[in-house]
Protein: LVIVD repeat-containing protein
Amino acid sequence: MKKKVMLLLFVTAMALVSCEKSDDGKYADYLVAKPLTISKTEFKNSVDVIAPMPVTESGKIYAYQDYIFVNDKYRGVHVIDNSDPNNPRKVSFIKIAGNVDISIKDDYLYADSLTDLVVLDISDIMNIKIVDRLEDVLRDNVIWPVADFYEYDGIDYENDILLGWETVTERRPILEYEERFTVDGELFAMAESATDALVGQGGSLARFKIVGDFLYAVDSHNINIFNIQDLENPEDLEDVYAGFDIETIFNRGQHLFLGSMRGMYIYDISSPATPTFVSEFEHGTACDPVVVDGDYAYVTLRGGNACGAISSGLFIVDISNINKPELTAEYPMDEPYGLGVKEEKLFVCDGDSGLKVYDKSNVEDLQALNHFKNINTFDVIPLENTLLMVGEDVLYQYDYLDNEIALLSTLQL
Structure:
């Protein structure tokens, strides 16, 4: 009996190997985006504050006073008490369907809930209150992930709302990949849709930014502008069209720096209600955020898949002439995401390649100070006394040293 079982296992294994060999040249692994949906009724009643819970998929981070807010992609925000950086602890979870970004000013938290803007009073962190909800003011806010295939089957558009996407790796026929956008035998590209206030700090991947009495929220095409002089009652102003594939926003002085898959766009906000285009730096097609320090903008470009570019890297752009940005230096990276600067230190989250720390005193000759390997890295915020970094469901904090940084604590989310 035992011999028969072994023979059956051997035959099965040989059949699998044979199938794999027959797949050679015909199949490949692809990223497949699958829809996450919620009923329309549940969506309108989706904001709530509950007890701490495990993270499903960690996203961006935001720091405000003694608290850290970690996005749980499309689900809400984890609130972490960081009064003791050596021992951070989760205190609550704010359920917000379709949420990926937040920004805070004077104890008022602004969060996206798909196309809605939600306002919460967090003056008592143990008793967070919902004070307002502006419906359909973020008009092009559904985030399309980097993927090779998008599955639409099974979405009930009459009763459900598309929250976002989860991506998985699946083996698919190469021919199916090549024919994704084929109509009548011809290949075509996807069509493009046409103070003294207490303000928190987000990372380079943020799409929300508060400057003075204004909240700027970028979607894939526009700068959505809100007057928040009355913190409880934001006023939705007219959007400013900014281009295609806008991904991130950064502010320095009177300028906004927008990171897109096509380049870096610079806008003047001397008249804060009406940002005006100044200039752009084109870099081809790649996923990127941007941060600015002094005369330089630091841009990480992540290639591969739907990002378009083949290679990844760090671009350093001279913006001393704001009307004519010029590339100064380029450094290879593996799969960079967020980045940040603190005095002469530059921090780069290089995906599965870890956290990389450089001395940027000479931008044309960056010197490596640290490389924290064997960790997944996504978003980073250099604070005054510590560095915050989120990876794959883990929050890391580092202590600044003279010429390097040292791990201070970790929190499993």
